[in-house]
Amino acid sequence: MGVTVLQIFPDTSRSGCIETERLHKRIMNLDATQGGMFSVDCETYYTNMQIGSGQRKLHILHNSETPVTTYAVLDTGTKQITLSADLLFDLLLPRLDHMYQNKKNLKIESKGFKYEVGDFVVKIGTVTMSGHYKGILVEVEYLPCLVPNLCWSLIREFMQSFMGSCVSATTPGFLQNRNMELYTPQDTTLQYVEKFTELREGTSNPPTSQAQTPTNP
Fold first, then answer.
1. CATH at 171
2. Domain extent at residue 150
3. Is 206 within the bounds of a domain?
4. Is 86 among the domain residues?
5. Cβ(60)–Cβ(93) below 8 Å
6. What tens digit of pLDDT does each residue of 62-107 get?
7. How far apart (Å, rounded) are the C-alpha atoms in residues 1 and 185?
């Protein structure tokens, strides 16, 4: 387990397969080793009543890397509380239907291939929501380090080598708030909630002018 960064990759074609194939070729050009498939899914539940000025959300996530764990993220609007539990937690959700209800067609999933490149693990995921294509999400994990501030520049350089200038030179906002803290699996879960929300709502807007020109073609 190391520091992980999630990046939405711009897809001007809106087809998914063309850009993911390009990313696969680029990562293989870095002498990557394919390591199977992965999937991360998220289903969001909403409170039945208004609490304060807004509605609370409960995000339930599953990650194939931790197959016996269910992650629950309670979003109050001002803060997020993360819980890690075993899969029996899923069986409790129907008993909470008096408090939380999920909206149909909002389950979202990132699924694809993962690769190993030296000390990096790369996961290139095609994101779908109820069977409809939503975008491309790339997860990059740097294994030897647990403090974001100590390895962001190295992660950024590596990501730019196959993703191009859609990778910002500045530290992602999520990591800025945790620069000197020890990174945990719960942080990866919170990043997935953030990126899934952007893709659901169509608010992601990564730069596209040079996104197709990585430093290593």
1. 2.40.320
2. 3-201
3. no
4. yes
5. yes
6. 999 999 999 999 998 788 999 999 988 888 887 877 777 777 778 9
7. 8
213 domain-assigned: no
pLDDT < 50 stretches in the chain = 207-213, 215-217
Q: Tell the residue number behind the tokens 């269910």, with chain if given.
A: 70
Residues 6 or more apart whose CB falls under 8 angstroms from that of 46 comprise 55, 56, 57, 58, 100, 101, 102, 103
**Number of domains present in the structure of the chain:** 1
At residue 50, the pLDDT reads 56
Cβ-defined contacts of 35-38 (< 8 Å, 24+): 35/114, 35/115, 35/116, 35/121, 36/113, 36/114, 37/64, 37/111, 37/112, 37/113, 37/114, 38/63, 38/64, 38/65, 38/111, 38/112, 38/113, 38/114, 38/123, 38/125
Q: What is the reported pLDDT for 92?
A: 83
- Its pTM stands at 0.88
Q: How far apart are CA 81 and CA 76, in angstroms?
A: 8
122 domain residue, yes or no: yes
